[in-house]
Specification:
Helix content is 19%, strand content 33%. Strands 3-2-1-4-5 form a five-stranded parallel β-sheet. α3 links the parallel β2 (68-73) and β3. By secondary structure, the chain is an alpha/beta fold. The chain has helices spanning 3-16, 57-62, 76-89, 126-136, 156-166, 176-181, 210-214, 369-378; strands spanning 47-51, 68-73, 94-98, 111-117, 137-146, 148-149, 194-199, 219-224, 237-239, 242-244, 255-266, 285-291, 294-303, 308-320, 323-327, 340-348, 354-363, 380-386, 397-399, 404-407. It is built from eight helices and 20 strands.
Length: 409
């Protein structure tokens, strides 16, 4: 396939993917785009180039910290979407234009910072594209690359085949050492390589071979690229009798996946709960899911004599260097590994006021990681449990299996 033919494949493919770049559910919007640590240091005098910018999510994040960002991309519909997003956000220092990464329309040394995120594997000639990035970066500036890499050279063909089923514009992934070698003739610094699990269906569009992708694999492991922090080869290239220095920084953004939690409760204790032992007893008992740090705000107060109780709400499953975490408006807990959902029990008085008297904590750290994997694929994490304790009183305290059953269906 010629370079021009591949460019047409890229344009067609990403025109069909525009929906993945727009709206709050966009996987690009969920990548903590506000974080620019992978591009730092930044300062107000920097003029930056975002290569293969897509809908300008990375450019938007960098814009408040620099003088100007120029973004280039092959796909006009993505640039139009990016321009609209920037207008809506009131960002005026980002210029977007159609251009080819392998033949950048800028003179040598035009930019203080040139960066490219998650695009190298789409380039017909990534070495030429990186050479163009280096050419347009001023002496003393920085070139920053971030991209997915194959787990190993032996697994690369399978990895690439899978990605082509998802997106036909995928060309070839790098392994870790190869990505580092792209800038081997320059002064290099490396960031870390971080494993990230992403459900494949987050990137599926109508052009993807969904059945072939999903049938044998519910999820796969993608890795954002770089070399180990301890590996720091240093070389210098000469240009116009001056040392040109560039850095290759790996960046693995924390990955977020929206999942709907469904809590299905049975065996409720009744609307009138008689006292016994240290339990004083209560009338007009109801139970609901408490909003984070707001005991007076409950999702769906269910009477204690209902046959069943069901609550559904959205959360985000977050995968990063510290493992699995859960976040959302109904997720409690101060830090990863301590997250839970409150089921709040209370009596409702004549004025309609809910007076909480005890709570149960559905501990999310007790969810089996394989169930979380499956939930990311299905989009649903389901808890099934009885809501009365051994004495027939409202369930309270920390709840873990076997008192609760977690599944993805």
């Amino acid at each position: 396939m010629s370079t021009e033919e591949h460019q047409q494949v890229v344009r067609r493919s990403f025109t069909r993917q525009v929906g993945l770049f727009s709206g709050p559910d966009s996987p690009f919007a969920q990548r903590h785009a506000s974080t620019v640590s992978w591009l730092e240091p930044l300062d107000p005098e920097i003029v930056a180039l975002d290569v293969a910018c897509g809908a300008a999510h990375a450019a938007e994040a960098a814009a408040p910290r620099v003088r100007e960002v120029v973004g280039i991309d092959l796909t006009p519909s993505l640039l139009e979407l990016g321009a609209q997003r920037l207008r809506d956000a009131g960002i005026a220092n980002v210029l977007l234009q159609e251009a080819n990464a392998e033949s950048l329309p800028f003179v040598d040394g035009s930019f203080d910072l040139v960066f490219c995120r998650s695009s190298l594997h789409h380039f017909a000639d990534p070495h030429r594209a990186v050479a163009e990035m280096v050419r347009t970066c001023r002496p003393g500036g920085r070139v920053v690359l971030a991209d997915l890499i194959a787990p190993s050279a032996e697994e690369r063909d399978t990895f690439d085949d899978l990605h082509r089923l998802i997106d036909p514009s995928h060309v070839r992934s790098f392994v870790e050492a190869e990505l580092a070698e792209l800038l081997a003739d320059l002064t290099l610094t490396y960031g870390e390589t971080i494993p990230i699990r992403l459900p494949i269906d987050i990137a599926l569009t109508e052009q993807s071979d969904r059945n072939t992708v999903i049938a044998p694999r519910c999820a796969t492991t993608w890795r954002a690229a770089g070399a180990p922090a301890s590996t720091r080869p240093r070389r210098t290239a000469r240009s116009s009798s001056r040392s040109r220095r560039a850095s290759s920084t790996a960046y693995a953004p924390v990955q977020h996946r929206r999942v709907q939690i469904r809590i299905e409760g049975s065996d409720l204790p009744g609307r009138t709960c008689r006292g016994g032992g240290d339990f004083p007893g209560y009338e007009n008992v109801h139970v609901g899911v408490q909003k984070r740090r707001k005991p007076d705000e409950l999702l769906d107060r269910v009477p204690g004599d209902a046959a069943t109780a069901v609550w559904t709400f959205d959360c985000e499953v977050v995968r990063g260097a510290n493992g699995i975490d859960f976040k959302g408006p109904y997720i409690e807990g101060r830090r990863p590994g301590e997250r839970f959902v409150y089921l709040s029990w209370g009596s409702i008085d004549d004025a309609g006021t809910f007076n909480m008297f005890r709570r149960a904590k559905l501990m999310l750290d007790a969810v089996d990681p394989t169930v979380v994997d499956a939930a990311e694929c299905s989009g649903h994490l389901v808890a099934r449990l009885g809501l009365s304790d051994a004495r027939g009183h409202p369930l309270c305290a920390a709840v873990r299996p076997p008192k609760v059953e977690w599944s993805a269906t």
